[in-house]
Task: structure prediction
Amino acid sequence: MNQSNYLCGKECVIHAGAKVGYPYKAGCQPAKMGDNCCVRSGTILYGDFSAGDDFQTGHHVLIREKTVFGNHIVIGTNTVIDGNVVMGDYVKIESNCYIPTHVTIGSRVFIGPGTVLTNDKYPLKMRDHYVPSGPVLEDGVTIGGGVTIMPGVVIGKGAFISGGSVVTKDVPPMSLVMGNPGKISALPEKLSGLNMAVSWRKYLS
Result:
């Protein structure tokens, strides 16, 4: 196993070919994980990363420094989280997603495959005024596959973003977004319940 500089709780599994606690700078703190975690091969977790219990990755996940996760977080294969990200409990991020710096994600959130969040309104322009500002996804948000979310956008509690949408402005709580640019409408009653993965039921029921 290719490992370094980490602390973990009980019954954790780190596959061969994973690197946990990558020392991105001198003096960085160990990566920290709670109980019952699984880090699959090809994954790189930087130092100064922390996750609670029941954290797991797919293969070839990259999570950079100063990222803080709660409990019951799943990160899909080939997803990149570029650091300075805060995430609550019970979050599932599917494969091939990109999460930039300065993003906040609440609890009971789902992010579909191939979704891209952004944090820079004017890439490589006006660098003297550049301040990264990632999206905020409040509790209970659902993001379909292939969605793009622009910098600084706040997606309100319980909102549902349909697959392929491009979100360019704030979304009120309990709203539905569809299309490019995303059109906001009332959330249908059938989509108003809280997100619930099968594996969460024994903890949340």
